[in-house]
Write a structure and sequence with these properties.
The protein folds into 3 domains: about 110 residues, Glutaredoxin (3-Layer(aba) Sandwich), CATH 3.40.30.10; about 100 residues, 3-Layer(aba) Sandwich (Glutaredoxin); about 130 residues, Glutaredoxin, CATH 3.40.30. Helix content is about 35%, strand content about 15%. The chain has a 5-stranded mixed sheet with strand order 1-3-2-4-5. It has a 5-stranded mixed sheet with strand order 6-8-7-9-10. The longest helix is centred in the first third of the chain and has 20 residues. The N terminus and C terminus are likely disordered. One of its GO terms (molecular function) is protein disulfide isomerase activity. One of its GO terms (biological process) is protein folding.
Amino acid sequence: MRPAIFPLLPDPGCLLLLLVSWLFNPARSEITSLDSGNIDDILNNADVALVNFYADWCRFSQMLHPIFEEASNVIKEEYPDKNQVVFARVDCDQHSDIAQRYRISKYPTLKLFRNGMMMKREYRGQRSVTAIADYIRQQKSNPIREVQDLEEISSLDRSRRNIIGYFEQKDSDNYRTFERVANILHDDCVFLSAFGAISKAERFSGDNVIYKPPGENAPDMVYLGSLTNFDLIYAWTQDKCVPLVREITFENGEELTEEGLPFLILFHMKDDLESLEKFQQEVARQLIGEKGTINFLHADCDKFKHPLLHIQKTPADCPVIAIDSFRHMYVFPDFSDLSVPGKLKQFVLDLHSGKLHREFHHGPDPTDVAPGQPIQDLASSPPESSFQKLAPSEHRYTLLREKDEL
């Protein structure tokens, strides 16, 4: 008998079964598990990372696991470089320190990171393979529109905040830094760029970045720092793209709450721009040093009738200024006192010192007139924004709950 030249092969029918099994049961994706020892290294080296913060006891977390893995499989086919896109997860019961670090209080929560920096807006889209994959593709798309003619600049939408970079060449450290900034802030500003001969007229002293604020006659502002220093140009651009006083809506309320800062809110009628302008001016004049300790917001009185009722106000009382500490709401005594030097600042300082809280429960200090008007004791309530408790049912969102988008 002739010796076998080839090893024994499986029956052709078995091969077909193996192929069908592989097609319908593809290898599961290796989702990176993060802990305190590897989280910084993995996230800092990832262009984009989508992190699933979960708890094993949460049924919505259990339902998301296979969807998250399959979305990872799809995306890794398109972005095979392991540092281009990372899908990762954190068991928040096992790693409560990480959950606390990123203020995770509901499960599952999907957070996006770029080069280690957590984005303000978490993923709140549909929990499906297609939707998650599309979201990552969108995050990987170029956020900068290249200008082909400087005439395009004259026709920009001046109701938006525009950041324009003029560079000698695209393959440069200056542009790569600009691109990193645009990837992070593209939801807040429109980013444009021009290169070579097209941009030459705007590069009289080298590569140049300018900010065109909203308003047809608003003057341009020029970035004067190093274009390769990411921290400097990011801080400058963020200051231009993210208004000091932001509008709170039912759509972004939870996102603002997750920033973990109390709210200083102006309630005003939608067409009352004069009150808004005064508030913005006084915040800039008196409270710029408090940026990072409190969120400065304005809200439509008609939309937020329920929070107003909570402080015994109606739209007819607007404009009204109040602080929402997530436990209580404190009312600024009189909007007409807004321009009194130091009055608004003292109101905020009294929050930080605990004076507003103390007077809320025990009445004005013996030697002082209460700067806030205590309305209702919510000491037994959980620490959440009054907007969450009082929003109309069709807009209600609760921070301390499981996700129900699945």
